[in-house]
Design goal:
The complex is a heterodimer of chains A (122) and B (111). Chain A is mainly β and 122 residues long. Helices cover 0% and strands 48% of the residues of chain A. The chains are: A mainly beta (122), B mainly beta (111). At the A-B interface, strand 5 of A face strand 7 and strand 8 of B.
């Protein structure tokens, strides 16, 4: 049974950084790409980027380029997402979501973490 | 503002059919990219409902169906039940933005 378990809620001041973890289990970690998606309060979903747990491919949405870093630890089957220079507009629930075995336009998200609320105070 | 446009809300009585639209353009849905649908209850993560335009994962009832035509897609829920009251999101890929895109979500209310 696939599980994605994320780290707990975070509170940061404006200008700070945050790093969220997502631990995968129930499948071969290196076989599927992992994505990060966020949802601001009362808003829709927003794709942030993708990481290949095998190494290599990492791609960020242009909006977050230069401010986001996605990494992985194969020893613990964990991916991380760090976001710098936080503002109040970054207040949102952040989800990790498992994609497909390839980085393709037809990607959909079969499994999701429970979400991590990041609150940024100004 | 979301790249794909969905109505903020739709409603229907139990047993009725409701349809949720998802409108894009020639760079996403109109370019032929797959459309996927998710269901989300308040305070929880989205759940995949439909993938690849009209395929249901195991466990999703067949009273949910989807279609696509031109630059739009739609999700239909037949035999509406109280348990269907949730938010529904469409998702596709946009080749001009080079990223995956979502609709703003539609709240389904069962009257």
């Amino acid at each position: 049974q696939v599980h994605l378990v994320q780290s707990g809620a975070e509170v940061r001041e404006s200008g700070a950084s945050v790093k969220i973890s997502c631990k995968a289990s129930g499948y071969t970690f290196s076989d599927y790409y992992m994505h990060w998606i966020r949802q601001a309060p009362g808003q829709g979903l927003e794709w942030m980027g993708i990481i290949n747990p095998s190494g290599g491919t990492i791609n960020y949405a242009p909006k977050f380029q230069g401010r986001v870093t996605m990494t992985r630890d194969s020893a613990t089957n964990t991916v991380y997402m760090a976001l710098d220079s936080l503002t109040s507009e970054d207040t949102a629930v952040y989800f990790c979501a498992r994609g497909l075995a390839a980085y393709v336009p037809s990607t959909y998200f079969s499994y999701w973490g429970q979400g991590t609320l990041v609150t940024v105070s100004s | 503002q979301s790249v794909l446009t969905q109505p903020p809300s739709v409603s229907g009585a139990p047993g009725q059919k409701v349809t949720i639209s998802c409108t894009g353009n020639s760079f996403n849905i109109g370019a032929g990219y797959d459309v996927h649908w998710y269901q989300q209850f308040p305070g929880t993560a989205p759940r995949l409902l439909i993938y690849g335009d009209n395929n249901r994962p195991v466990g999703v009832p067949d009273r949910l169906s989807a279609s696509k035509s031109g630059t739009s897609a739609s999700l239909a829920i037949s035999g509406l039940q109280a348990e269907d009251e949730a938010d529904y999101h469409c998702q596709s890929y946009d080749r001009s933005l080079n990223r995956y895109v979502f609709g703003g979500g539609t709240r389904v209310t069962v009257l």
